[in-house]
Amino acid sequence: RVNQALQQIDLHSNNIGDEGASKVAEALAGNKTLQRLSLANNKIGDEGARKVAEALRVNQTLPLVFLRNNNIGDEGAGALADALRVNQALQHMNLHSN
Q1: Which residues does 85 contact at the CB level (< 8 Å), separation at least 6?
Q2: Are 83 and 53 in contact (CB under 8 A)?
Q3: 8 A C-beta contact, residue 54 and residue 23
Q4: Which of 1, 23, 56, 66 is the most exposed place for a label (fewest CB within 10 A)?
């Protein structure tokens, strides 16, 4: 079951790591109402970024994603870049300080 009312999720500074990012990504893939997702400052690494990227390939409605101040390296950034090739909704992604 997918929540069809939620518009914003702010999990900033909760140390969810890769596992938490993966769980959020699972929910994100089927959501059509979310407008803002902040996963900033959560110790998310390449694995978590890959999972978020997979969700962004499917989710075609989310315009704002904040992933700043995590531990995303080249591999995770590459997966996110690949997702942007097919995602037509994303307008802003903040990856500052990774």
Answers
A1: none
A2: yes
A3: no
A4: 1
Q: Any idea what DSSP says for residue 77?
A: H
- What phi-psi label fits residue 15: left (phi over 0), alpha (psi between -120 and 50 degrees) or beta? left
- E strands in the chain: 8-10, 36-38, 64-66, 92-94
Convert the pLDDT of each residue in 52-91 to its tens digit.
Answer: 999 999 999 999 999 999 999 999 999 999 999 999 999 9
CB 11 within 8 A of CB 39: yes
- pLDDT of 2 > 80? The answer is no
What is the C-alpha separation between 62 and 34, in angstroms, rounded?
6
Backbone phi, psi, residue 32, to 5°: -120, 5
